C-alpha cells in the first residue's frame, strides 16, 4: 500500500478547490429534496473528509478538539449561499475580540434539485479560507481599535465591552482590556452573535475574500 503524504494547509486548500469544482458537477440522489442545511453540511463534510483520508495522513477532529483538523488548527464549515451562517462552540468572550483560535475553511453552496432524475446538486459558489487572526467579530474589533486610536484606556475598553453586552463579568472584561492594551487585536471579519453557541455569519468574508490579507478566495 503506498505511503500517504502528510496533510498541510497548502495541500488542504488545493484539495478543497479541486473538491469544490468536482462537487459542483455531481448529481447526488441522497440530497434530493433535502432542505435541512445541517444534513447537507454533514453530507459534504463527510465526503470531503473521506476524500482526504484516502490520500493523506492527518489528525482527525473529535468532540474534545471541537474542530475538524486539530493538527492544522482549521475547522470546516458548509453553508448555503441563501443564508451563509453556522454555529460553533462558545469557549470564551475574548473570541469575539481575538478570534476563534483556529482558521476556517468555508464551503458555500447553492443547492438545486433535478425533479426528473431525483438528484440534488450542490453548486459550490465560494470556497474561502479565513486565517485565525481574522475570525473575530467585525464590529467588536472595529470599536476596540477605534478606542485604542482615540487614546482609550482600560476603563474605556471595559465600558465598550459592557455597552456591547459581551458575555463577561467586570473582572473578566478588565482582564481582556489589559490584554488589549498590551496586544491589540487584528480587525476581524466575521459577524458573531451572542448565544450559548456562537452564531457565525459569513456575508462579509464572502464579500472581502481575496481583498483582505488573511481572507483567501480558494475558488
Describe the structure.
This protein is of the alpha+beta class and 219 residues long. It folds into two domains: 5-89 and 102-132 and 194-217, PvuII Endonuclease, Chain A; 139-182, no CATH class. Helices cover 35% and strands 24% of the residues. It has seven helices and ten strands. It has helices at residues 9-23, 37-53, 95-98, 138-149, 154-163, 170-182, 203-208, and strands at residues 5-6, 27-28, 56-57, 74-80, 85-89, 103-114, 119-130, 191-193, 197-201, 215-217. Strands 2, 4, 6, 7 and 10 form a five-stranded mixed sheet that branches. A three-stranded antiparallel sheet has the order 5-9-8, with no helix packed on it. Strands 1-3 form a two-stranded parallel ribbon. Helix 4 (138-149) runs antiparallel to helix 5 and helix 5 (154-163) packs across helix 6. The longest helix is centred in the N-terminal third of the chain and has 17 residues, at 37-53. The protein is elongated, with a radius of gyration of 19 Å. The mean pLDDT is 94.
Amino acid at each position: 500500500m503506498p505511503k500517504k503524504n502528510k496533510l498541510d494547509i497548502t495541500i488542504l486548500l488545493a484539495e478543497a478547490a479541486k473538491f469544490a469544482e468536482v462537487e459542483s458537477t455531481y448529481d447526488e440522489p441522497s440530497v434530493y429534496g433535502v432542505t435541512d442545511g445541517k444534513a447537507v453540511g454533514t453530507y459534504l463534510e463527510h465526503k470531503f473528509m473521506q476524500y482526504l483520508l484516502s490520500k493523506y495522513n492527518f489528525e482527525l477532529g473529535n468532540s474534545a478538539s471541537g474542530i475538524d483538523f486539530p493538527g492544522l488548527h482549521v475547522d470546516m464549515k458548509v453553508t448555503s449561499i441563501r443564508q451563509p451562517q453556522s454555529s460553533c462552540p462558545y469557549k470564551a468572550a475574548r473570541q469575539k475580540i481575538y478570534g476563534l483560535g483556529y482558521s476556517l475553511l468555508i464551503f458555500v453552496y447553492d443547492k438545486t434539485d433535478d425533479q426528473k432524475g431525483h438528484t440534488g446538486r450542490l453548486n459550490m459558489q465560494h470556497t474561502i479560507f479565513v486565517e485565525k487572526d481574522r475570525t473575530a467579530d467585525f464590529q467588536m474589533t472595529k470599536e476596540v481599535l477605534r478606542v485604542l486610536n482615540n487614546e482609550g484606556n482600560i476603563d474605556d475598553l471595559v465600558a465598550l465591552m459592557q455597552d456591547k453586552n459581551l458575555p463577561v463579568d467586570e473582572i473578566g472584561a478588565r482582564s481582556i482590556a489589559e490584554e488589549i492594551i498590551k496586544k491589540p487585536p487584528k480587525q476581524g471579519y466575521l459577524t458573531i452573535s451572542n448565544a450559548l453557541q456562537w452564531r457565525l455569519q459569513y456575508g462579509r468574508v464572502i464579500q472581502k475574500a481575496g481583498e483582505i490579507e488573511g481572507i483567501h478566495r480558494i475558488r
